[in-house]
């Protein structure tokens, strides 16, 4: 009887180092492509929220004026949630006095967690009672003239809603 001794071939388990390096390289390339796209989409979503905040405040101010005859007044200066504009809060004594809670549930805050900041980045409001201007200052991702919230006095750093007399403040 002729018996050949055969060794079973070693079974291959797992991946080789070369295969792992190829997979890691491909994943890194995909991440490099996707991160900027996702970051841009997040900035667009934040700008959409800012536009919604402008519309909500404009509507609340119109309702306030209809009921009270004038807009909530400030001391002649800008009031805002950033450091340079008083670091006001978001309740009834916030940066737009007496608007919360009867006309809007809360005063809006920028959707980007880095705002308001210690300088000018954030939301601000000014009114003499007859006119008003509400500004999103130094936070938006894009500024362009065709934007319906274009601010002529802050063309590269602000969005605004205002009454006709407050437009150029």
Could you describe the 3D structure shown?
The chain is an alpha+beta fold and 169 residues long. The chain has one domain (18-166). The chain is 31% helix and 11% strand. Strands 1-2-3-4 form a 4-stranded antiparallel β-sheet, with helices on one face. Strand 2 and strand 3 form a beta hairpin. It starts with 16 loop residues before the first helix and ends in a 7-residue tail after the last strand.
What is this entry, summarized?
The chain is α+β, with helices and mostly antiparallel strands and 169 residues long. The protein is 31% helix and 11% strand.
Low-confidence stretches: none
Q: How many strand elements?
A: 4
Ends apart, CA distance between termini: 107 Å
Rg, alpha carbons: 28 Å
Number of domains: 1
Element layout with pairings:
Layout (H helix, E strand, L loop, with lengths): L16 H52 L10 E2 L41 E6 L4 E6 L20 E5 L7
Name some characteristics of this structure.
169 residues; alpha+beta; four-stranded antiparallel beta sheet; 31% helix
């Amino acid at each position: 009887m002729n018996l050949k001794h055969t060794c079973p071939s070693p079974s291959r388990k797992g991946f080789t180092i070369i295969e792992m390096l190829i997979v890691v390289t491909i994943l890194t390339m995909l991440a490099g492509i996707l991160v900027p796209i996702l970051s841009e989409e997040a900035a667009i979503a934040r700008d959409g929220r800012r536009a919604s905040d402008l519309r909500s405040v404009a509507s609340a101010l119109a309702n306030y004026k209809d009921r009270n005859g004038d807009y909530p007044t400030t001391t002649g200066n800008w009031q805002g949630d950033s450091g340079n504009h008083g670091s006001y809060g978001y309740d009834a004594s916030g940066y737009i006095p007496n608007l919360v809670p009867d006309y809007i549930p809360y005063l809006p805050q920028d959707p980007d967690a880095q705002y308001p900041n210690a300088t000018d980045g954030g939301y601000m409001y000014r009114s003499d009672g007859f006119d008003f201007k509400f500004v999103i200052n130094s936070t938006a991702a894009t500024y362009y003239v065709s934007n319906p919230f274009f601010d002529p006095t802050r063309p590269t750093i602000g969005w605004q809603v205002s009454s006709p007399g407050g437009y150029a403040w």
